[in-house]
């Protein structure tokens, strides 16, 4: 189960890494995403002349997937403001992230990744980096959490998943072109610290199990993206959140539940302010009893699926 905790936690910050220049897209599609008739789940709250639309997102997507349904397009077009998790796409944010990731992700002087992992796990790490065409030695100064996420992101891009086609990148470009305001629910630093603050033994086990199970990543990712694109929220909740809930309640609280609770007052403030808002956050934050939709409903809001 830990492999899914690690993998799904990594998906939560892949968008951040995509904004730092650490990653470069490649093109190798395993699934014919062009055949998917996408209709991602979209919810709407209306109150006292204000409207908030809610869409779950994936930070990296294949070029061939057309996820823009008529409902999503209509909701976005009528919005005055786009709200995202954090600013990771602007030039200023990318410069900040270039400095922040090394600050949070480097080992103390004299400590190397290979010394932390031990010979067996580091040998597996070397094999995986060789497959991706990256020298393992480049990662020696890096803490296990950052090494694992970077490696996973590179693997995703080797499957043809492109940060430039991620929902946030696409919507941000359109919002700028249409003169919409863009707001953020949290900071990139706060997102990264969730993983950077993990105890070292958890980081090492995270990377070890990820390496053992890297071969299953493509099929698992296909299932997740298909569930999201077709609006299958039960499957999405099971794939993205279920394993985290079962295997590491503490990480689930930190990565998902606490942030969901933090975002509810922001969304209520949008309703109080008036106007039309489009909120686009990671797909795993929407479904389930701890998801944003359920939390808003618990506060008495009528949340309608479009």
Automatic annotation (TrEMBL):
It comes from the Bacteria. Pfam families: TraB_PrgY_gumN. InterPro entries: TraB/PrgY/GumN_fam, YbaP-like. This is TraB/GumN family protein. It comes from Glycocaulis abyssi.
């Amino acid at each position: 189960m830990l492999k899914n905790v690690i993998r799904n936690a990594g998906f939560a910050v892949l968008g951040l890494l995509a904004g730092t220049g650490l990653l470069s897209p490649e093109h190798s599609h395993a699934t014919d995403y062009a055949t998917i008739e996408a209709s991602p789940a979209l919810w709407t709250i209306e109150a006292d002349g204000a409207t908030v639309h809610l869409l779950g997102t994936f930070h990296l997507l294949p070029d061939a997937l057309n996820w823009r349904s008529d409902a999503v397009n209509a909701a976005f077009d009528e919005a005055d403001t786009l709200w995202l998790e954090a600013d990771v796409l602007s030039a200023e944010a990318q410069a900040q992230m270039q400095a922040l990731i090394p600050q949070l992700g480097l080992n103390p002087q004299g400590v190397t990744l290979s010394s932390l992992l031990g010979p067996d796990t580091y040998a597996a790490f070397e094999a995986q980096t060789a497959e991706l065409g990256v020298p393992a030695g480049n990662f020696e100064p890096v803490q296990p959490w950052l090494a694992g996420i970077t490696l996973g992101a590179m693997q995703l891009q080797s499957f043809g998943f492109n940060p430039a086609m991620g929902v946030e990148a696409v919507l941000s470009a359109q919002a700028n072109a249409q003169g919409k305001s863009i707001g953020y629910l949290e900071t990139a630093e706060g997102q990264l610290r969730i993983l950077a603050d993990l105890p070292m033994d958890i980081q090492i086990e995270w990377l070890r199990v990820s390496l053992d199970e890297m071969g299953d990543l493509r099929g698992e990712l296909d299932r997740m993206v298909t569930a999201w694109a077709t609006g299958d929220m039960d499957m999405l909740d099971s794939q993205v959140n279920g394993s985290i809930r079962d295997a590491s309640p503490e990480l689930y609280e930190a990565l998902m539940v606490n942030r969901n609770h933090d975002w509810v007052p922001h969304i209520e403030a949008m309703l109080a302010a008036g106007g039309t808002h489009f909120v686009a956050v990671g797909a795993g934050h929407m479904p389930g009893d701890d998801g944003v939709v359920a939390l808003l409903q618990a506060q008495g809001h009528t949340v309608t699926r479009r």
